[in-house]
Amino acid sequence: MEVNGQYSNTGSAYQSGTGSVQSTDYQTFLNMLTVQMRNQDPLNPMAATDFAVQLATFSSVEQQMQTNQLLSALLSRSGLAEMGSWVGMEARIYSGAHFDGESILLAPDPALGAERSFLVVRDSNGSVVDTQEIPAGTDSYEWTGLDEEGDPLPSGRYTFELESRIGDEVMDTVPVAAYLPILEARVEAGMVVLVLPGGMLVDSATISGLRQPRAAPQPTSTLGRLS
Q: How many CA atoms lie within 13 A of 53 on its CB side?
């Protein structure tokens, strides 16, 4: 899952919002208890022990909520420590990649029985900006970010799809994973998110693979582009 730029502010908002909700709930409870006391039957008033039970019950629930929040925070910190060892490695994700002139290594997975495979590249608006035929059966492909004229595409976010074909018929279209370096791990709103090139933030739970970084780019031949 991708986390957008506004996500970084959610954590503080969540924490302050939770405290505000607890304070409001407690004040509401006291107001209701006061109204109950004012409107009780003077000939049959509520016993003092009943008020004490209500206060104790509310206090117990409030403490349990605070305990749950503390446990969630501790688990997040524990996850952050574990994910810290991921920094510097390459993560396999399906939510696209940020292109800034450097080639991006993809992991296509052609459908079984496909005769031809085509890589379809879309920009952040969802428009197709490049279509390339890739070698049949390949499971690793380096996208250089060049258009049909051989000029580099603008910097920005791109997503990738793979069309598997039999003849001219498209039999399957699936997202293509990219391997991207992990720059940082941080906690956002109780979740551990990973910072990728271009400022991309992704939930660590969406990572489908992890590996050591490449020693050097490996060029991949191109069979051709579709006009």
A: 5
